[in-house]
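Newbie here. two chains, one complex. Structure please?
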Amino acid sequence: MSTAGKRDAFTTFDSAYVVLPVDNVDTDQIIPARFLKVTDKRGLGESVFADWRILPDGKPNVDFPLNRPDAKGAQILVAGANFGCGSSREHAPWALVGWGLRAIVAPSFADIFRQNAMKNGLLPIAVDPAFHAQLLEARHANPAARIAVDLPAQSVALVGGPSARFEIDPFAKECLVNGVDELGYLLARLEDIKRYESTHA
Amino acid sequence: MSKPTTLFEKVWGRHVVREDANSSVVREDAGAPAVLYIDLHLVHEVTSPQAFDGLRARGLRVRRPDRTVATMDHSTPTLPRGLAVVDPQAEAQLRKLEENCAEFGVQLFALGSADQGIVHVIGPELGVTQPGRTIVCGDSHTSTHGAFGALAFGIGTSEVEHVLATQCLLQRKAKTLEVRVDGALQPGVGAKDIILALIAKIGTGGATGHVIEYRGSAIEALDMEARMTVCNMSIEAGARAGMIAPDEKTFAWLKGRRFAPTGEAWDKALADWRTLRTDDGATFDASVKLDASKLAPMITYGTNPGMGIPVTDTVPAPESAENAADRAALAKALDYMGLKAGAPIAEQRVDVVFIGSCTNSRMSDLRAAASILRGRKVAPGVQVLVVPGSQAIKRQAEAEGLDAVFRAAGAEWREAGCSMCIAMNGDQLKPGQYSVSTSNRNFEGRQGRGGRTMLASPLTAAATAVTGRVTDPRTLMGRDISGSAGALSKPGDLA
């Protein structure tokens, strides 16, 4: 269909990871409001976690996990519970993806953030606290530790270590695995929508 | 007799264009969520430009411009109009919205319009917010409109594009959470204190995956503006939406509004709206209770809206938290806030008081603040911003002389907009400054980098403005406060 949006198919990958074991990371931390004056989606990666990553004098905060040398090339962030709470700004996943992330692993996610993330090829992976703790410990012991993600199998694994199954909305999974967005599906339902409007709206 | 259903289930059921296809054998559906019809789409400058670009890229039009209403609020300055927008990036964003609305035929209440204002203030004010409607906006505080018995929730920019293109969204049905608030509120305690107490009780993720229905005698006793305050902060508990069943107060508030039905259509709508109630015997997935009579004025001390205490209390100690994660979070929050565990919160000095935002910028909020500030002065060294939620509220407040009360007290009376709630428009805290704010978020840097926000009601904020320290408003209330909170504003007031 000519109106269907295409993006890269999301299947399996493995990557180094960074950890930010803080609960309730809100979208104002992920991308502060002063960066929301843009009218496109590009360029937000350099401002991700701006107030935690960049000191008031403009220098990088070398202690922030994303700034450490071993964070380079990491495509996975392991974060705390209720990640992405707060505003509905889709600039949050745009900024995280812009920095280079493809998956966030956390004990839980805020609703709107989870929806926004999946629409931008950023996979929210909710895992139980025990497995989450294993990921944090493994990274602490070995900064080169890697996580493997298999979306078709709904599996996340510490490379050379334990693995866990994760849940994902089946439709969102289908869209991610096939690299299509949801609007194409909705546009294909126009006859249903017209029928509804003729009797309801 | 059909199965008893909740208010949410009734409104949801009326808007399903196509059922959830999880059980479908049709391959193309691949377990698709329900297609939900959206009655009203509210649009603002910050979360829409990329969605309009998406339409252009696919050669699509706005399917129902007649169901789409736009305004400018987030990045607008609140200094007197006529001054240039000083931030060129913000100005470009505002121009973009004008261009997009013109190109796609969307009604826009722009800066300078007599109806401009915060999107969640003008929706009800214009009467486009109505019981039983599905309402979305690219803004999480869309939950505000649930005060009218609408199903209203915030969406991201991709979904803004979906609604612009199809007037529909793909949605899984949320679970239901009953929040029952019974008992009579004490004087000086209001809607903001109810919702801050609820979030303190269940936490910022406590309602994730759920739509809240607020019920009980204390909710029924609230006027419409107070109900909007409660529903507004549903998202701060993680809820998808918050709803209150419409009643006679709802109908009286709506009657005569510009886009409310009239004549026969009104009578028909009213008959329908009266059916929008949770049936006796309907069940919720979860339930929480609050005793309104035991509530005190609330204030937050930390860096999320769940970190709230009665204004008479002391700052909690990290050691008192239940688990290691909460202890760490509390220690981090107190460090950011520069507050000491065990210190009475009421002794905390403040630099700025902000009265405004989609949570608390309506007439009853301004009247409440004015009831404290009338005949008093703002404490030396404290900056007080009073920012009405809309141009209509600004006119009404000025007609009642409230602007003169605020100015005489030493507060600044500003133009309508989001202002210091989101600090995108020049109104912001300096690093290290403390504010008591009637807004909805106390996240780190929310009101400006390094700023320290304490959320409270308009009464508490005004009392704090007078003393320069966090203050229990009840200590300043032992006098005539006629004309203060509680009065219903009539449609004619805001014409």
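Moderator note: The first strand of chain A starts at residue 12 and ends at 20. Chain A has a mean pLDDT of 95. Thread marked as resolved.
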